[in-house]
Structure formats: C-alpha cells, structure tokens
Design brief:
alpha+beta
Length: 290
C-alpha cells in the first residue's frame, strides 16, 4: 500500500513554496495582464503564404518590444497584440511589413482597439464565472458526499488556480481571456479526478470500519492511483500535441497543461490529505468532549 498521507507535510510544503515564489513575483513585478483585460491594439494580417515569423517579429519589436505575436490559419496569418501602441506607430509598422514582404493593401485583415472599459467588464465577468463555478462545485460535492469532502475539493481547486497563476507570474506570461477559460476547464477536470478518489474513500470506509482515516485514504489512493495517472497522461498528451501543432490556441493550451498537471497532483497529494486532516481534527474534538 502506497504511503501518501504520512508525507503530507512534504506535499503541502512543495505547493506552498511554489505559490509563495509566484506571489513574490506578483508583488515585485506584478502580473502580466494582457490586452484583453488591460486594453490595447489587436491586429491580424494575412500573408497569403507561409512566412518567416522571426523576420516579421524583428520589425514588430522595433516598434513595440512588448508585442505578442502568434500565427494562425496554417501559418499564413499573423496576430499581433500589444499595449501602449499608438495609431501612428501601428500604421508605420503595417506599412513596413507590407513593403518588406511585398504584401497587397488588403493584407490587413483587422485592426481593433480594445478599450480599458471592455477589459474591466471582462475582469468582472471572469471573477463572477469563477465564483459561480467554485460555489456550485462546493454544493455538489457537499451534497453527494459530506461537507469535509467539499472543503477538501475547494482547497485543491484553489491550489490548482494559485499554482497556475504562480507559473504565469514567475515566467511573466500574459494573462488573457483564454487563461480564464482554461482555469474553468481545469476546475472541472480536477474536481472530477478528486471525486473518483473520494468515491473510493466512501466505499472503503464501509469496508474498513475501525481503521484510521489515514489508512483508509492510503488504501483508496493505492486503488485509484493508476487510473489517475493514466487519465492525466492521456489528457496531457493530447493538450501538448495541440500546443505544438496548433499555434493559434496556445494561449488556451498552455494554462491547460499547467492546470492538468497541477490538478492530477492536487487530487492525490492535496485534496485527500486535507480531508484526513479535517476528519482527524473532528475526531479528536469528539474524543475531548467525550
């Protein structure tokens, strides 16, 4: 039987260290908020053929070194996102790209200015969506199992979100709307994996009456470990392939990769040990009262 619960301090410490480092970066440098929330300029250009992205990036970075570029439509289109991009500089950059690569005047597919007010609305909507998702998860798990399971699942979900934010802060990756969509997806994936383990714990509690909560949890984790690992690896393989071969969805795929790894780990090393801590404390209080 695998001993997971006995080493819970190690698992908790690893997560806390990553989160603390991430939030140190947030306090020192701040989170890199993308134009979807902060406002800025979004440009799409159609080259009509495959092109050397590095050469185009050299031109773009000359006008705005903070710009983010991604290819789309089988490598024939370029999406440019940047904050603090004046109309004059934008027009000069487009003209230079068109002249350097001999593009026609209709190469510019779209040029949009995203105002700060739209960014504020997106931020408010994202917070509401995350709050509703977390509350619904808590209610569902609490009704299906018991309140201790619900609290453990919510702590694991918070862990997944904080780990993902910490990675973004450490590597200064822009946070845009695909990040929020990915976080919501990860929450659903993570709680599903956690419920599988909790369901086995509930079954084993009936079979292992008189055993400690730690023993029941270790037994349940041993029985579901291979399933959890296989599910995580299968999902991760698909998402990594999407990240590599479909550049247009990398803003969505990258936080998914982080979240799926974190979610697979949190179900085993965070949610279940937290459940044991809660149950052991409740049991100790009952004994003291008795």
């Amino acid at each position: 039987m695998i001993k997971i619960i006995e080493h819970k301090k190690i698992w908790f410490s690893i997560s806390i260290i990553i989160i603390v480092i991430g939030f140190l970066f947030v306090s020192i440098r701040g989170l890199n908020i993308g134009i979807d929330f902060q406002g800025g300029t979004e440009i799409t250009m159609n080259f009509g053929h495959e092109f050397n992205k590095a050469d185009v990036d050299n031109i773009i970075y000359k006008y705005n070194p903070d710009a983010i570029t991604t290819t789309a439509n089988n490598g024939t289109e370029l999406d440019i996102k940047a904050t603090n991009f004046s109309t004059e500089k934008t027009n000069e950059m487009i003209k230079e790209i068109e002249s350097t690569f001999n593009l026609s005047s209709d190469a510019l597919v779209s040029q949009n200015e995203i105002g700060p007010s739209i960014g504020q609305q997106l931020t408010k909507g994202a917070i509401i969506a995350l709050s509703i998702a977390v509350i619904c998860m808590l209610i569902y798990v609490a009704i299906r199992f018991e309140f201790a399971y619900g609290i453990s699942a919510i702590i694991a979900l918070a862990h997944d979100a904080l780990i993902t934010i910490s990675i973004y802060a450490i590597f200064n990756i822009p946070v845009n709307t695909p990040f929020i969509a990915a976080i919501l997806t990860v929450i659903g994936y993570s709680v599903n994996d956690t419920i599988v383990i909790f369901d086995r714990i509930r079954e084993n509690r009936k079979k292992m009456k008189g055993e400690s909560f730690d023993s029941i949890a270790n037994k349940s984790l041993s029985q579901t470990m291979s399933r959890s690992i296989n599910t995580t690896l299968t999902t991760l393989t698909t998402i990594v392939a999407m990240y590599i071969f479909v550049p247009s969805i990398r803003d969505f795929a990258f936080p998914l990769i982080i979240g799926i790894v974190s979610g697979g780990c949190s179900s085993i090393f965070i949610a279940t040990p937290v459940w044991c801590v809660i149950k052991n404390r409740k049991s100790a209080k009952k004994i003291k009262k008795a």
